[in-house]
Design goal:
alpha/beta, globular, 7-stranded parallel beta sheet, binds NADP nicotinamide-adenine-dinucleotide phosphate, single chain, 289 residues, 11 helices
Length: 289
């Protein structure tokens, strides 16, 4: 096992150019050796004496083996959930002697009413990690508060937010809290074999998020509700039809109230209330111009 002068074991962080992984890498790098696997090394923002970057991705077995060498625990982010990335990673990790995988999954996995294609893929990917023979921890966050960054272009240009089912609530979570839980799971005992549902402190609608963003930006914003047909057409500009249909089914579950439940896991684990959307909005106001 690789350690540095801190004597602490090496942790591999994937997704370190992304929403949660970036924060996981930043928190870990403060006091332990961290290795980052990325196809986009130029996007890595964390640096320091204990930080190593291995260029490459899950499709590059040599890079994966280099990244996993001497690693004790790994944070696993796969965002092409239809792919076999979890299986490829878990097998390489087992072969390298990694002991613990902390996998970023999604809350829908534990919703018995969720049977869309994306959720079925996520369940399969979780099952791969649980069956890997390694210790594992599964993190199942609700929607990230940072998804509202997709509203930034229309907020900047028109002062408008466009959202489907704008009065349906989601107990959205700050990705920084998800990262805090990931770091606990990676570095402290007691989290192996656990599945954590991670929500924010309250269920909010897009109408309410828009009002809180307007407060943070100190200017009025207008909300325009998208029709389901318009929302589906938007999804089809970036997803295949089966994935667009799965995301529409997910939005309909939210409309039916399936994503509004607030969970206590974050406050139980990190000993404070999860961060609110108002705090997230204030901290990210600059991104909305
Ligand atoms: N957004 C939400 O509301 C939400 C809620 C719950 C769960 N989730 C889950 O969170 C996960 C992350 O989603 P996200 O949209 O927030 O993405 P993200 O973490 O912002 O970006 C994806 C990250 O994964 C890494 N990655 C993806 N494929 C890779 C590959 N083949 N090889 C190496 N690295 C790879 C990318 O690294 P490089 O590109 O640098 O290689 C990138 O850093 C997904 O599994 C998603 O289902 C998201």
């Amino acid at each position: 096992m690789t350690t540095n002068e801190t004597g602490r074991p090496m942790i591999l962080v994937t997704g370190a150019t992304g929403t949660v992984g970036r924060e996981v890498a930043r928190l870990l790098a403060a006091d332990r050796p961290v290795r980052i696997l990325t196809r986009r090394p130029e996007r890595v923002s964390v640096s320091g004496p204990g930080v190593e970057v291995v260029p490459g991705g899950y499709a590059d077995r040599d890079a994966l083996d280099r990244a996993l060498k001497g690693v004790d625990a790994a944070f696993l982010v796969t965002n092409d959930v239809s792919a076999a990335d979890d299986a490829v990673f878990a097998e390489a990790a087992r072969a390298s002697g990694v002991r613990h995988l902390v996998k970023l999954s999604a809350a829908a996995v534990c919703d018995p009413g969720a049977d869309d294609l994306v959720t079925r893929w996520q369940r399969r990917n979780e099952a791969v990690v649980r069956g890997s023979g390694l210790d594992w921890t599964i993190l199942r966050p609700r929607s990230f508060m940072s998804n509202t960054l997709s509203w930034a272009p229309s907020i900047r240009s028109e002062g408008v937010v466009r959202a489907l089912y704008a009065s349906s609530a989601n107990a959205c979570v700050d990705p920084r809290d998800v990262a805090r839980v990931a770091v606990l799971a990676l570095t402290e005992p007691g989290h192996r074999g656990r599945e954590y549902l991670l929500s924010g402190p309250q269920a909010l609608t897009a109408v309410e998020q828009t009002a809180q963003l307007a407060d943070a930006l100190r200017r009025p914003l207008r909300l325009e509700e998208l029709t389901p047909a318009a929302a589906r057409a938007q999804l089809l500009t970036r997803c295949t039809e089966p994935v667009a249909d799965a995301l529409m089914a997910s939005a309909e579950r939210q409309l039916a109230g399936a994503k509004a439940q607030v969970d206590r896991t974050i406050s139980d684990l990190i000993d404070r209330q999860p961060l609110s959307f108002r705090t997230w909005a204030a901290d990210h106001a600059a991104a909305f111009g």
